[in-house]
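Annex B. Sample input.
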Amino acid sequence: MLSQVLTGTGGVGKTQLAADYARTAWDSGEVDILVWISASSRAAITAGYAQAGVEILAADPRDPEQAARAFLAWLEPKTGQKPCRWLVVLDDVSDPADMRDWWPPTSPQGRVLVTTRRREAALTGAERRLVTVGLFTPQEAAAYFTAVLAAHDRHEPINQINDLASDLGYLPLALAQAAAYIIDDAITCADYRQRLADRFRKLADLLPEPSGLPDNQATTMAATWSLSIERADQLRPAGLARPMLQLTAMLDPNGIPSGFLASAPALNHLTLHRMPGEQPPAPVTAEEAAGALQALHRLNLIDHIPDAPYATVRVHQLIQRATRDALTADQHDQLAVTAADILTAAWPAIERDTALAQALRANAAALVRTAEDALYRPAPHAVLFRIGTSLGESGQTNAACDHYAYLATSIDHRLGPDHPDSLMARQAFARERGKAGDAAGAAAALAELLPDCVRVLGSDHPHTLATRHHLATWLGEAGDAAGAVVAFEELLPDRLRVLGRDHPDTLATRDALADFRGVAGDAAGAAAAYEELLPDRIRVMGPDHPDTFISRNNHAFWQGEAGDAAGAVVAFEELLADRLRVLGPDHPDTLATRHALADFRGVAGDAAGAAAAYEELLPDRIRVMGPDHPDTFLSRSNHAWWVGGAGDAAGAAAAYEELLTDQIRVMGPEHPSTLMTRNSLANWRGKAGDAAGAAAAFEELLADRLHVQGPDHPDTLLARHHLATFRGKAGDVAGALAAFEELLTDQVRVHGPDHPHIFITRAELARLQKKAGDAAGAVAAFEELLADQIRVQGADYRGTFITRVELARLQGEAGDAAGAVAAFEELLADQIRVQGADYRGTFITRVELARLQGEAGDAAGAVAAFEELLADQIRALGPDHPETLLTRNDLALWRGRAGGAAAGLATD
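Annex B, continued. Sample output.
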């Protein structure tokens, strides 16, 4: 026997499907007896069977129970009796218990079709199969709506029909009644969508009058669901289904984590609004909240899937609308605040779980769409700010910027421009504007905000001090690191006086001051400041606090920048272990630590290891943060850099070309990160052999840097530096010298004479002097530079070592081979002590020593030195690294000069 139970929410068209099936079966002659019973109650079922018994068996109508049982007995198959093919349709079974003892008998000639909004286990079994009737697909909805309109000689643009179907959630009943409304009122789909979007209109006002319902429908959508809600409220735990549905009506129809609905604010709401009974009502438990969800699920008012991680509760958007329509204005606003409280209670301070964060943002966005005004009374709810914070932390800086801009305007409109939250929204907007790439615009916005904070809140208010902090930050990010240092130095005494030395904001200012000292050129001073700060961070906030981790991260960074790359690697390794333990492997800060660790592995000399580490990191960045997240782009950029550093300049250039395309698409052509990628791309093109092409690319980049960032921005000065470098490599030594001299003047004016960038430019000028034939001038320039580097950066800084290499080379080229050897030997000992035996700079010094040994007449000694060096480079850099290949060539050369027959091995 074919026995099917069609289940689904009210309005999906279960009755229409059953009617179509029954009509087809009858018209095709597949059944001899067709019985249709409206099964909304046990009495109705009994009456339907009794009526069939009276009409088919001439049973006594005065005894409906007996007539009904006689009919069911007649349906039983009987030996020797002519088979009778029958179909019984039980439409709208409202309670599975009503069907107890009233299921038609099993028969090879019989069929049973049931429609119901319920989905309990009692409806299945005994060869009965549950069939869920869902919504229309978008294509089905459009085809249905188009056909209904065409039948009344109405035609609408397909895009409007598609959009309206989406607005109605593809619910068949809603589409039918909306079509009738549009036809009867002679309006367009666009008109109807505009009315539907008006939150102040009730759903009932957008449906036909009861007398005008289409397709023999008896009730409107709202009435259809009202009865289901009443029945759900009667199920255990009694009285909780309705207030639970009201909560879900304020949140995301596509997925509400059930944990949200068992939180303290949710349980308080359920306790206060359960069906009247005991006074005072007993507190609702999490178990009862789950029971309320299951009751709604059983009536197909929601889909409750406990196993789904973050979309456990789904509810159709029109059921939400109808539920909200039944609320008074006060009930609606109170529910909105309760829903906002639920979200803020569920929102973790640290978003370790990106899927949870996305679910929170989706539910918050739905709440804002539904009840925005209520969230501003009497003051903006914290959830409005939490949305923007989450967007920013997830890397969606443009979305965060747009959110805060709208929030600031909304608070201004509702509460006035001097409301403290209006000022805070402006501050948040400026911060996100900076993160989105407009550092100068962020600084300007904060500079405008600061006088308003002072006027409204006072100069010592924490929000005013925070605005000064952010202003200093974005002043530095916009290129004025020295100005940022001054601003932080002025802010720190005020925070100490107002907040105290142990306040988190005071510690944050010390952190930022240390950081921008490093950016301004004092890497060693920055590292020292972090060493002083860290014990206070640990004492006040604890060793595992995120801010303590941030200070450890920054300390490790400036330790590396100050010349101790190996120490930075160790510090980042220790930090990574702690962040994995506390934050988990997928937290953005954990991924950032892996990023920094990989970078300093490269700085410490292991370029191939750095590239490999980025290859391992990138899939995790993409999985957790998405392919278009700024941090994902940053890891792709560093991966490309170390691919080049490991010897594959062409591969680096190709990787930067791919990255540039994606950054332009996502961030735009003028974003600082996009411009920096153009810088790196041009650089690696030049290193791959195309110096002229690199110079041309830097000329184009410089014009854009000047336009976007101005002439004194560090990145603009960097572009001028690279342009001059590749002009020199392309053969224009005189032009490069002139360009570097002009650049040096501007750098000294902007950064001061002791900034690291100044030393790099001076080194390039000295090299060009040598290239132009002025060896004596080059020696003098390098000697002056070395003295300044030792004074400012220290004798063990890697830049200091590079200058010593240049001086030793010049000494050898001037004919003082013995002096050059002595200088290189002294340097080599220092490099091994500071940087390690496998650092690339150490290898370069060994190359210079081996060559000098050979040029001094000891070809055999040179061969031995190159053989030892080659073995170490193969081990540390790999056999195909360009520097390894150069060493093989040098070895072959000196073997030849030494008279060895193995000279031909250089071509192997």
